[in-house]
Design brief:
The structure holds two protein chains of two kinds.
Chain A (H helix, E strand, L loop, with lengths): L2 E7 L8 E7 L8 H14 L22 E2 L2 E2 L21 E5 L8 E3 L2 E2 L2 H8 L21 H11 L6 H5 L6 H12 L8 H14 L10 H5 L7 H16 L5
Parallel strand pairs in A: 1-5
Antiparallel strand pairs in A: 1-2, 3-4, 3-5, 6-7
Helix pairs in contact in A: 2-6, 3-5, 5-6, 5-8, 6-8
Chain B lengths: L8 H6 L2 H26 L6 H13 L2 H4 L3 H31 L14 H4 L1 H20 L12 H9 L2 H28 L8 H27 L5
Helix pairs in contact in B: 2-5, 2-9, 2-10, 7-9, 9-10
Classes of the chains: A alpha+beta, B mainly alpha.
């Protein structure tokens, strides 16, 4: 396959970036998208040029490191697929592919396609956990969990924190990420003591970090590689409004 | 990160994006109930001038013994004006927050931008607000009505829609209203936390049906004047 790539190049957080054009003549349809970028980078290194920086780790679709906006699509055209699991057979010979980083004020560009997603860590720190005493683990069957709650909690727990929801949201909102964590912990018995404060604190942090507000457009769910349901946002709203009415607080 | 607890319910609600959305949702439901009542009232135009004008007069006399002439009507107007202020204030605040959240946009247009109704919520809302101003000047105060203010409500309506461009503008406005309700009603249900993965399609269909009924229920009046069914 012969491809024309237009890639966002930005040398540093302060530098002014621009789309740079590259051509690749020898792309195999069986290559993953990241392998295709590896081929480009090898070529750039041989030409004594700066290779394109991008995040990646497991390349198995489970770590949440990779992610780029491909032709206006977070993680590319294939549904329920991370960039590393996307293969070049979904593109045609002669295609021009635009590759851009996640765009959000809370995700500043570090270099090229690498963005700083520490904002997600801040959201997690403000409530994405349960408080338990460490020591020997309790017997797993001691606290029964009904199947529907267990399944819904597990669906939400599949969130890998890649940030595609923020990248695709017309409001630059991290609502689906926050909602996945709140749903995951809020549906399980162990998450109940902190349920109300978790929802308001995580949302407050999200708002404070300059993420936008949710308008229920649904773009987040469309691009989510794990297919986190939009209904998890309803769960977050439910917990936040409940906590707002009762005045739940953590101090 | 230390979160300062918001002890007062007003600041707690107004202090989060979800709280502001709930304000938009509650005031939106107020508008929706008003619009349904308004539509039912409008449809009396098909029962003739006496019924329609009697209804118009009745609106001014409801609860007169307690609240005085037009007392209830002004009460409803006050609630609506208060709701408009809160609805738009919260919406503009979230609009600003969203603008701030993505200072640098994409070069390649986003492929998945949501439904047309979802994408036109903000500007659509502004257009509906401008229409309502015209609508009040036309059919309530009569300032821009060919017959002026003191005529029968029925005759003012017919005279106004006899101008094709006014009828067309009205129909476009109720289509914009329908789109706003289609996304707004579903969105309000989601904001109240009543959505679930199983119910989502049914809720979206429900919002669509409500929006379609309201759009048709309003648009049928200018269409009937244009086609000569209502004279």
């Amino acid at each position: 396959m012969k491809l024309t790539l237009r890639i966002w190049r930005q040398a540093s957080p302060e530098a002014k970036g621009k789309m740079q054009k590259y051509t690749l003549d020898d792309v195999e349809p069986d290559m993953s998208f990241l392998e295709m970028l590896d081929v480009l980078n090898e070529k750039l290194v041989l030409d004594d040029k700066d290779p394109v920086s991008f995040d990646h780790d497991c390349r198995e679709g489970i770590c949440g490191s990779c992610g780029m906006v491909i032709n206006g699509n977070a993680h590319g055209p294939q549904k329920f697929t991370t960039t590393c699991q996307l293969h070049m057979r979904h593109f045609n010979d002669g295609d021009t592919i635009d590759i851009e980083p996640w765009r959000a004020k809370a995700f500043p560009v570090v270099k090229d396609l690498v963005v700083d997603r520490s904002a997600f860590d801040e959201i997690i720190k403000s409530g994405g956990y349960i408080s338990v005493n460490t020591g020997s683990a309790p017997e797993a069957h001691a606290i029964p969990v009904d199947k529907v709650s267990a399944d819904d909690a597990f669906d939400a727990a599949t969130c890998i924190g890649c940030g595609a929801c923020v990248a695709a949201c017309p409001n630059g909102s991290s609502m689906l990420f926050t909602a996945a964590k709140v749903t995951h912990l809020g549906l399980l018995p162990q998450g109940q003591p902190e349920r109300a404060t978790r929802a308001i604190n995580m949302l407050a942090t999200q708002d404070e970090l300059d993420f936008g507000g949710c308008t229920n457009v649904g773009a987040c769910h469309e691009v989510c590689p794990k297919g986190i349901p939009l209904a998890s946002i309803a769960q977050l709203n439910h917990d936040v409004l409940g906590a707002t009415l009762t005045g739940a607080r953590s101090d | 990160m230390v979160i300062t607890p918001q002890r007062n319910i007003v600041s707690r609600t107004w202090g989060t994006s979800v709280g502001k959305k709930s304000v938009i949702a509650v005031t939106g439901i107020v508008f929706l109930l008003y619009v349904i009542a308004h539509m039912i009232g409008n449809l009396k135009v098909f029962f003739g001038i006496e019924t329609f004008d009697a209804y118009s007069q009745h609106l001014r006399e409801i609860g007169e013994a307690i609240f005085g002439y037009e007392g209830v009507l002004w009460g409803i107007r006050a609630v609506l004006v208060g709701s408009v202020v809160l609805h738009m204030w919260a919406a503009f605040s979230l609009w600003y927050q969203a603008k701030k959240a993505r200072p640098i946009g994409y070069q390649h247009r986003q492929r998945w931008e949501g439904s047309y109704a979802a994408r036109t919520m903000r500007w659509g809302g502004v257009i509906i607000a401008l229409f309502v101003i015209w609508h009040i000047l036309d059919l309530t105060t009569g300032t821009v009505n060919p017959l002026g203010g003191d005529e029968s409500a029925y005759l003012k309506l017919v005279a106004s829609f006899d101008r094709w461009y006014v009828a067309l503008f009205y129909i476009l406005a109720v289509v914009a209203l329908g789109l706003h309700i289609r996304h707004g009603l579903w969105s309000a249900i989601q904001t109240f936390g009543a959505n679930s993965a199983l119910k989502q399609n049914a809720l979206k269909t429900f919002a669509f049906v409500v929006a379609a009924v309201i759009t048709i229920g309003f648009a049928i009046v200018p269409l009937s004047v244009m086609t000569g069914l209502v004279r």
